[in-house]
Write a structure and sequence with these properties.
methyltransferase activity; single chain; RNA methyltransferase; 9 helices; four-stranded mixed sheet; 248 residues; alpha/beta; SpoU_subst-bd; 10 strands
Length: 248
């Protein structure tokens, strides 16, 4: 049975403030939890419904296991319908990313993406197409937001996420910078080469002016219908797919 202090502590991790203070975040659902167990993440504890214990893989001895009932899981879960398992996981320490380490590959850069579902879908898409790193502006939604984590479906375990001042980062950069802009060259006629930084902007405002100034290859997804705009996660998928197609 969970104590009031345990319930209070886990519920505090629903909020960014306490995730930052403790260096811990939540993952729900056995499939996603398995992804983090297999990745170089440190698992703090796992809470599980008793009859589903056999779904757990073999675990290191240092992971705290707590059997809970449905009512208790509902109290600590961020989901309306809990999925039988909840893990508390350590947020990995991330160093400042250096662009020299991103040569000969493609990297997504997100400028002001605010919706956690979009962020999670972009991370999942990047994982599908083999993008290992995503760099976010400092005002992007947090990658360890429970809604973001849920939307990644475990892909967060394999994609490195960095938060940087993009203007500073892109100064004195030698890697081609592609930006998703309305007045760019067609994505289907773009010569990608063998490396690049792919910038996608905020859901409503697009890429900020100071970051646009750092773009040397504007790219657009041609419109054939009447829609005003594309969802940023959809745009990310099209860019990742087109880059993967032309590389292979």
């Amino acid at each position: 049975m969970l104590s009031k202090s345990q319930i209070s502590f886990i519920k505090s991790l629903h909020q960014k403030k306490y995730r930052k203070e403790t260096g811990l975040f939540l993952v729900e659902g056995i499939k996603s939890i398995k992804e983090f167990i297999q990745a170089p993440y440190q698992i703090h504890s796992i809470f599980y419904i008793g009859e589903q214990y056999n779904l757990l893989p073999k675990l290191p001895a240092n992971i705290n296991l707590f059997e809970v009932n449905n009512a208790e899981l509902s109290k600590i879960s961020t989901l309306q319908t809990p999925q039988g398992f909840l893990a508390v996981i350590h947020i990995p320490e991330t160093n400042t990313i250096h662009l020299k380490n991103l040569k000969n590959q493609f990297t997504l850069i997100l400028d002001g993406v605010q919706d956690p579902g979009n962020m999670g879908t972009i991370i999942r898409t990047a994982d599908w197409f083999g993008f290992k790193n995503i760099i976010c502006s400092e005002d992007c939604v947090e990658a360890y937001n429970p809604k973001t984590v849920q939307a990644t479906m475990g892909s967060l375990a394999r994609v490195n996420i960095y938060y940087e001042n993009l203007f500073t980062l892109l100064t004195d950069n030698e890697i081609p910078v592609f930006g998703a802009l309305l007045d760019g060259n067609s994505i289907y006629k773009t010569n990608w080469g063998n490396e690049g930084l792919i910038i996608l902007g905020n859901e409503g405002k697009g890429i900020t002016k100071e970051v646009i100034a750092k773009i040397n290859q504007p790219v657009t997804i041609p419109r054939f219908g009447e829609a005003e705009s594309l969802n940023v996660a959809v745009s990310a998928a099209i860019f990742c797919s087109e880059i993967a197609r032309t590389k292979n």
